[in-house]
Amino acid sequence: MNIGHPPTGKRNIATVCNTMMHWLVALAVLLIAHPATAQTILPSDADPTACSVSPEDFQKWFADNAIAKDGIVLPANSLTFTAPDNTALCPFFRWSEQMFLWLTSPLGSGHVFDTPQFYEVLPADPASGKRTLRAPAAPGQFRSFAPSIALRGSQGQEVAFDSTGKVHDVVHPETGPAGKIVLLNAANQLAEVGRVLTGSGGRPVLLDRSNKAIDVKTAPNGSPLLLNESGPLRDKAGAVIDLAPATVLVEGKPTLLTTSGAVVETEEGQAGSGGVLMAQNKSLVYYLIEVNDVFAYFKTGAADAKINPAPTQFPTVQDTLDKITTVAQQAPPPNTKQQFPDGIALTMEIKSSWVETAGLANPQDYVTINTTIPTYTPSADNKTWTPSGTKPATLALVGMHVVGSANGHPEMIWATFEHVNNTPNTQYTYKTTSGTVTKPADGAGSWLFSADGASANAPAQTMSVGPQNSIIGQPIGPINVTRMNAWGSDPTGSQAADNNTAVISINNSVIDQLAAGDVRKNYIMIGSIWTNGLAPTTGNRLGTTTIANSTMETFKQPGACFDCHDNNMLGSSGGGGLSHIWGDIIPLFP
User: Fold this and answer.
1) What's the whole-model pTM score?
2) Which residues lie across from 288 on neighbouring strands?
């Protein structure tokens, strides 16, 4: 443990000893309270002035101004959202925290996020590419849970992140009958590429299916010359693939790179495919995408020219909300809606991740729902799981993206939350009232998504979605996941310690004030990101700018939301733009 720029002498020794004692006490308390699980420990000595919620304000978040165990929290008023300037962290963090507590508030037999205020966004239809909005299912009924999340770029194209967080387009080459690249070697014989390695100087090395190096012809730049019987190897669109003389690491694997910067998918389950994750309790991770009623009727009114002038961004003011309300009031039955119960939340887009409670050491510490999920039949070698039906299950919430528009921010505020037992953190720095502290990387423990401590390398994807929604792997099973940027900031950035301190402080403030026994005490905000109110670019990102959720962007770390969610202020057909679902959603009614 290091103290940044401490004073010298006995005071320095005392400071180090006191800090170490703090961690030992915190660890002892943790072991007593949760003996069967590892847990992210929030440093209690983080400077509380960095960001907090006053007791008076926190009480106002609750219905009837009464803080209660599992009490109903009201949504943040996005219409009146204000911040001194766009670089002020705390107003955005408070908005994020209140929205999460609202969404996960128990209501009736469920929670706010599964009331009639929210619509499920069904997966894109394979033929049309369109998405349907479906009203929430009754408890126990099948919902549109999927075992992976598709990753698209700002134009709707397939993309992948390398190990540095840089985003690349994905190129799919022509393949042979076995689904592998087939090319001519130096002896003009056909050879099938099994996988790729990185040689000296970053040079690509191609191996055949028996892991023997292929003696390939090379281009003048030293890269493999991809030739087959028809001439130069082409992608599936017919364009010649021209390789760069280096590889990049994508999802833990060396990957071919074109001279234009795209990565080449050379094996099934590699770059750009739908990543599948399994927790240590052997449950697949299931994902659900939802939008609120304001979003649904806003999309319907915009698509059918019922809102004039035609909107070019998500709503942020009362006038637009009034127009959306009119659309709802004039909708044909059964879609007629007189008012939005929580219209002040404006447009909300929610993405959540879940695991089965079976095998969890502490299922009572999670927000849970009863539902029906897909089932799969494993192959004899456990490398392919084939869909085989459905089953009733209780699912535990492990992660949630909370995204919503607010006054002055039509680009929306993007926040993410995780359960404290999820994943070990890498090393990070934060500030106390007396200096900067370095928190060592988390060690091994009973993490839900890791059997080991934090790793310096991004997790490697080993499973993906295959044909007919099957799951393929090598073999199928859990992996060790690390949260690469503990609180959403690049650890080498100049603002990392300040940002980390603010995130830790707001977490401490909220968790400490929640009533004893409130299940929401077990969830932490990882960070939030926004812009200056304009469409996201590389230059106007604010907040925790390298934010990622270890259960949803597991294999995309250390990338960030706005690497893919940009280009315009709504969304475009094919899954591009700011919202990757906006352009393809079918209106609720004509």
Assistant:
1) 0.83
2) 352
